């Protein structure tokens, strides 16, 4: 293992077999060596700052039926909501006043928010607040991506969840893997900072699949990568499956930091849901971003991608204070800028 870590820290380039070896480490002492190497790489390239993104989950309607997702179209038990455009702009302005310099607009794939509507929201936020805007709204046309970029969107986050084509097809009815990858390439070509990522612990997933996921992210030139554990939702077909391993998530975060040393890697909310200290552990394994939820409380409990989600009852100001304390507890500092890739 030491020879692989030395190579990774020197060249930031590993092949699939080497990645599999690191992901297969099951000795606690060796895992800590891996995490320490990733943390040192993060310190070297990015310093101590942890960047905050204010997350607005503005609609839980979705046209897709992904087998693992609580807001899938087929979930008839979920109360649906949409936050109207002017309220989205208002919430973003409030987040800016709380000190956030990046706003993430996330929803299911909801056709109500056309390209015109999204451009209206983006322009409205840019007029109201000096923030970077990240969109996480799924597959759109090239023209929509182009228009939203021209309206002022800075970043786009869309996870592919698994690079295994057969597994992707099984978990994403009526969706096309090639189209999703083409969307990611279009987003990158238009000048967005590209965010993507995957789930760990999907039924049928192998360690080799996770290595392929990591290599695909490098091939795509992702600027931000989110990795979280699969957490089964009771209102989905995967309700009886086992949750993903936090250890595997942390190892994947560490490997990503080693081979893509200057990208942004969130300590995801799902990691914090799976373990009370999950976000702290992720920060120590190479992560450098946290995405506190600033969605109005009356909607927040309805955005149920997975059960047991943390922080759904905290108001945005209290959440901000809590997250800043978490960051300082691991010896890190709260970033004050936009926190983009390479500046």
Structural account:
The protein has 343 residues and is an alpha/beta fold. 45% of the residues lie in helices and 12% in strands. The protein has one domain (2-6, 14-330): TIM Barrel (Alpha-Beta Barrel). It has helices at residues 2-11, 16-23, 28-46, 85-97, 115-128, 142-151, 165-171, 177-189, 207-220, 246-259, 269-274, 278-284, 297-300, 316-329; strands spanning 49-52, 54-59, 102-107, 132-136, 155-157, 193-200, 224-229, 289-290, 333-334. A six-stranded parallel β-sheet has the order 2-3-4-5-6-7. A three-stranded parallel β-sheet has the order 8-1-9, covered by helices on one side. Helix 4 (85-97) links the parallel strand 2 (54-59) and strand 3 (102-107). It is globular and about 55 Å long. The chain starts with a helix and ends in a 9-residue tail after the last strand. Keywords: 4Fe-4S, Iron, Iron-sulfur, Metal-binding, S-adenosyl-L-methionine.
Low-confidence stretches: none
* Rough outline: globular
The CATH topology label is: TIM Barrel
Q: Give the overall average pLDDT.
A: 97
| Strand composition percent | 5-15%
- In percent, how helical is the residue content? 40-55%
Cofactor: [4Fe-4S] cluster; [2Fe-2S] cluster
GO molecular function: 4 iron, 4 sulfur cluster binding; metal ion binding; transferase activity
Keywords: 4Fe-4S, Iron, Iron-sulfur, Metal-binding, S-adenosyl-L-methionine
Protein name: Radical SAM domain protein
């Amino acid at each position: 293992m030491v020879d692989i870590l030395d190579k990774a820290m020197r060249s930031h380039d590993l092949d699939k077999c080497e990645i599999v070896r690191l992901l297969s480490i099951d000795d606690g002492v060796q895992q800590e060596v891996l995490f320490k190497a990733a943390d040192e790489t993060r310190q070297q390239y990015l310093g101590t700052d942890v960047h905050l993104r204010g997350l607005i989950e503005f609609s839980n309607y979705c046209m897709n039926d992904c087998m693992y997702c609580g807001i899938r179209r087929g979930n008839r038990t979920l109360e649906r909501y949409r936050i109207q455009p002017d309220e989205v702009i208002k919430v973003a302005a409030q987040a800016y006043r709380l000190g956030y310099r990046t706003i993430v607009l996330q929803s299911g794939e909801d056709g109500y928010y056309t390209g015109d509507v999204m451009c209206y929201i983006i322009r409205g936020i840019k007029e109201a607040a000096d923030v970077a805007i990240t969109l996480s709204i799924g597959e759109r046309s090239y023209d929509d991506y182009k228009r939203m970029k021209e309206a002022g969107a800075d970043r786009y986050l869309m996870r592919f969840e698994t690079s295994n084509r057969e597994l992707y097809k099984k978990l994403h009815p009526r969706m096309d893997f090639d189209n999703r990858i083409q969307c990611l390439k279009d987003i990158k070509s238009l000048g967005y900072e590209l965010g993507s990522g995957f789930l760990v612990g999907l039924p049928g997933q192998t360690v080799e699949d996770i290595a392929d996921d990591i290599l695909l992210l490098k091939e795509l030139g992702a600027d931000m990568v989110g990795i979280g554990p699969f957490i089964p939702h009771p209102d989905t077909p995967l309700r009886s499956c086992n949750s993903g391993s936090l250890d595997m998530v942390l190892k994947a975060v560490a490997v990503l930091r080693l081979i893509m040393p200057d990208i942004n890697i969130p300590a995801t909310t799902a990691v914090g849901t799976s373990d009370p200290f999950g976000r702290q552990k992720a920060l120590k394994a190479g992560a450098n971003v946290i995405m506190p939820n600033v969605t109005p409380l009356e909607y927040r409990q309805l955005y149920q991608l997975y059960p047991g989600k943390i922080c759904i009852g905290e108001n945005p100001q209290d959440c901000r204070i809590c997250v800043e304390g978490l960051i300082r507890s691991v010896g890190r500092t709260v970033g004050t800028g936009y926190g983009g890739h390479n500046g």
